[in-house]
Amino acid sequence: MHGRTQAFIVVALLLTAGTVKGQETAAPTGEQRDRWMRVYSGEAAQYQIFRRGEEEEELKLVPSPIQTFTNPVRVRVTHGATFVWTSDGRPGVVGAIWSVVWSETVRVS
């Protein structure tokens, strides 16, 4: 990358990294977050994922998510968890389960 392009990218990231003044976040916290994580874990546990080969093998879910995430700065609040299904301890599938929730402060006309 050219120096000018890199400088542009850095400036763009700096300008978009912060939240806008007055912008409210609605990310789940505390007990609400724990309830969502139980929902996501329960959903992930219901999936049966198989690897095909000489013999079909069911992949095993790692029960704890490897990542949780949220995006509270949009009209719709997105949050979720990323899970891994393994074969002999090696990752076979990585998948995310998430929710999109309308913020209570947004009015649709």
Task: Summarize this structure as a short list of keywords or feature phrases.
single chain; 6 strands; 2 helices; 33% strand; two-stranded antiparallel sheet; elongated; 109 residues; alpha+beta
Describe the protein.
- A hairpin with a 4-residue loop joins strand 4 and strand 5 (76-87).
- The chain has helices spanning 3-17, 30-46; strands at 50-51, 57-58, 60-61, 67-71, 76-87, 90-102.
- 8% of the residues are buried.
- It is an alpha+beta fold and 109 residues long.
| Unreliable spans | 10-25
Kindly state the mean pLDDT as a whole number?
77
SS element count, helices: 2
Gross morphology is: elongated
Q: What level of helicity do the residues show? A: 25-40%
Map the helices and strands.
Elements: H1 3-17, H2 30-46, E1 50-51, E2 57-58, E3 60-61, E4 67-71, E5 76-87, E6 90-102
Antiparallel strand pairs: 1-2, 3-5, 4-5, 5-6
Quick structural gist:
With 109 residues, the protein is α+β, with helices and mostly antiparallel strands. The protein is 29% helix and 33% strand.
